[in-house]
UniProtKB/TrEMBL annotation:
InterPro entries: MetI-like (IPR000515), MetI-like_sf (IPR035906)
Name of a matching Pfam family: BPD_transp_1
SUPFAM superfamilies noted in UniProt: MetI-like (SSF161098)
Family affiliation: Belongs to the binding-protein-dependent transport system permease family.
Alphabetical keyword list: Cell membrane, Membrane, Transmembrane, Transmembrane helix, Transport
Transmembrane segments: 31-56, 91-117, 124-145, 190-210, 231-255, 283-307
Start and end residues of each ABC transmembrane type-1 domain: 91-304
Major localization listed first in the record, in broad terms: membrane
Subcellular location(s) of the protein: Cell membrane
Protein name: ABC transmembrane type-1 domain-containing protein
Record carries keyword Manganese: no
PANTHER family linked: BLR7065 PROTEIN, SPERMIDINE_PUTRESCINE TRANSPORT SYSTEM PERMEASE PROTEIN
Membrane topology type: Multi-pass membrane protein
Amino acid sequence: MATTVVTSAGIASEAPRGDFGRILAQRERRFAAALLAPAFLALLATTTFPLLFLVYTSAFRMDLAMPFTNGFVGFENYQVLLSDERFWTSLLVSLAYTGSTVALQVIIGLALALLVMDMKRGQGWFRVIAILPVVLSPAVVGMIWRTFMLAPEFGIVDFLAINAGLGSKNWLGDPTLAMVSVIAIHTWQWTPFAFMVLLASLASLPEDIYEAARLDRASAWQRFRRITLPLLRPAIVMVIIMRTMVALTAFAAIFTVTGGGPGTATEILNLYAYRKSFTELSIGYGAALAVALLIVTIIISGILFAMRRAK
């Protein structure tokens, strides 16, 4: 069986049906590539090229305060980084900040999702109110907490602490309280994300499994531990992965609330790289710090994805 194909010269020719299908498939692939090309080029320009330039910059000494010392240094910035105590301190702060916020988001988000699933009324209003912190800019959230919530004596948190008999606290001036404060702020803003994902996953679970468990007289805790948690595991791991990658690169809220202080108590690695680059004007070393943060993020993400694939 043959099919008539019109060539570019306008001459009709007979082509086997298999060849005609192959020609159509090639045209569809070329058309799809043409549609994707602008987005692909934009992605290269906004992500891949800056990333490659960052790695390139990290191999140079680029000190805007002393430009006469600039030049190619290879891995010297990374050698300095490994012996930099402030780097290791900021890395530990980043890991503590990330681990605490992600754990709290998953636990609180799951608890809220379970609570809403049992609500007979008001689920819609609760979802709308719960999602509001996510739509706010992290910089705006930081300013709100700094001025209205954590201000000594006049802030809402300090007011509640005084009325509870705990006295006024310097929430942003004490190293321990400052770390607790930035963890609380990040958790407050991003727990709704975990809540909405886990709520959607809970709503999709098959009800017949729970009916069978009730018939077998399984307690609420047994149903949660033996049914809900295993079925929610993929969603929980995905939330952990997404929130971990965001928390490791957090910046705006901490910068507006504490600026990394007091001292370096809340100085995460991302903020240290910023300070080195734009405050101390050591662009090359700041780029090396950013590359180190990228490597840490890739390693942690790889571990989490391996956990997700594990049975």
